[in-house]
Design a protein that fits this description.
The complex is a heterodimer of chains A (366) and B (89). With 366 residues, chain A is mainly alpha-helical. Helix content of chain A is 54%, strand content 5%. In chain A, helix 7 crosses helix 10, helix 9 packs across helix 10 and helix 15 packs across helix 17. In chain B, the strands form 2 sheets. Chain B has a 3-stranded parallel β-sheet. The longest helix of chain B has 10 residues. Chain B starts with 6 loop residues before the first strand and ends in a 6-residue tail after the last helix. The chains are: A mainly alpha (366), B alpha/beta (89). Chains A and B meet through helix 4, helix 5, helix 16 and helix 17 of A and helix 1, helix 3, strand 3 and helix 5 of B.
Amino acid sequence: MNIGGRLKALRDAFGWTLSDVESRTNIGLSSLSDFENGKREPMLSHLKKLAEVYQKPISFFLETGVSKEPVLLWRKKPEPSKAAQLEAKFVKLCRQYKNLEVWTKNPKMSEFDQLFVAGYPKEYNDVRKLACDTCKRMDLGSRPGESLFRVLEEVYAVKIFNLDLKSEGSSACIYTEDYGPAIMLNRESVQWRRNFDLAHELFHLITWKARADVKDPGFLESKDEKCANYFASVLLMPEEPLKEAVESYLNEKKEITFADLDSVARQFGVSLEALFWRIHYVYGTAAEQIEKWIAASKMFNGGPLRKSDAPGDLPERYKNLALTALMEGLMSSRQFANYLDINPADVYSYQKLGKSDGIKIKTGTF
Amino acid sequence: MVSRSKLVLFDTGIIIQSFRLGIWDALVSHYHIITSEIVVEEAKFFMDENNIRHPIELLPYVASKAIQVEDVSLSELKVFKNTHDPVYF
C-alpha cells in the first residue's frame, strides 16, 4: 500500500473527515486530499504532523507492504473509531517504552517469559490453581493488591499505561515479540477497579501463547472473561489471608458488619462487590444471598470515605528510563520532549533535575 | 555583517539553548545556519533559570534570510532510510 492509501486507511479507521485532520495538523484540505490521492507527495514537515496525529512512526508511511497491526484483547471494546485511536496511541507508547529499555539496556531482569502457561486452563479449578501458583511465583505476599502493580512494572517489565478511556472501555492487553507484555487501564477508574483490571489482564497475558488452541486469538469468549475475573479474584484475595482477615472481625455471634467488610476490601485493594463474590467461592455462600448483600451494601462500595489515587499520565519507570537516556546522551532533548509529550523548552528543567544524580555506591561498602 | 564562513545544521534543542544563553544573535552573525521547517515550528519558547518561559521568534530571521530553512522531500527521506540505521526512525 502506498503512502496515500495508508493515510486514507488511517483517517477512515479514526472516523475523521479531511477537515478533522486539517484542524489537527494545520495542513490545508487540498494538500491532504492530494496526498491521499497520490497527486502529490508530502514533505517531511507534513509527514511529521500526520505521524503525530495518527500516532505512527514516520517509517510506517515509507513502507509499501501490507501493515500487520498488533492485536489487542479488550475487556470492553469502545466503538470502532475510538478503539482505533486508543490502540494507535497505546501501541505508540509501547514502542517508545521498548526503545527506552533497549537504549538504556534495561530491564536487566525480565522474567515474564517464565509466567507463560503451556496450555489454556479448561476448568475453573485449573484457573484457581494457576492464580495461586502465579501469586507464589511472583512473590506477591498476602496482600497482592498492594504489590501487583509495582512487581509487574519493575520486576517483570510489563508496560502499564493509564489512558483516558472515559466510560468507553475498561482495560486491554497485548503481547508482541517486539514490545513484550503491555496493559492499558482506564485512568478514570478508581484504584480498586484498576487493581482488578490489572489482575484480569495478567490472566490474558500469561495465557497469551496458549491461545493458539483457542478459537480466535483476537476474540474473547464470555468464558475467557469469566476465567480472567475468577483468576483476578483468587490472585488478589488468597484464601488463607482472606479468611484470617474476615474472621478477625467476627463478633461473638459470628457476625460481621458491612463497614468491617469494607475494611477487608480496602486491605486487599478490591471493591466490596469483588470481596462478596470471593466470599461466595471461599465460604460457599449462595449466589442469591451474595446478590442481596451487594445490593444492600451500595453505600459502602467506593463511597466518599474511600479515596482513590489519580494515576499519572505516564508510568514512573518509563519517565525514569527517558531521563536516564537523556542524561546519558542516548536520546536528544527533542526526542525526550516527544516521549514525555512536553514542550521542548521544558526539557531544560529535567536536565537540571538529572544533574543531581551522579552518586554511585560500591557494593561491599554497606 | 561579518562574513559567515561555516555551514551549521541546528536542531530544536540547540536553538532553544542558544536563546537561553543569549548567544543566538552572535551565532547567526558568525555562522551560516540551516535548520528545518519542523524545528522552526518547535522552537517556540525557552526557560530561564527561574523556570519562566520566554518566547522565541524565528520568523523574522527566516524572512530576512539570516537563517536558511529547508524541508525534505519523500524521495530524499527514502534514500536516507535505505542508507542509515533504522533506529533514526
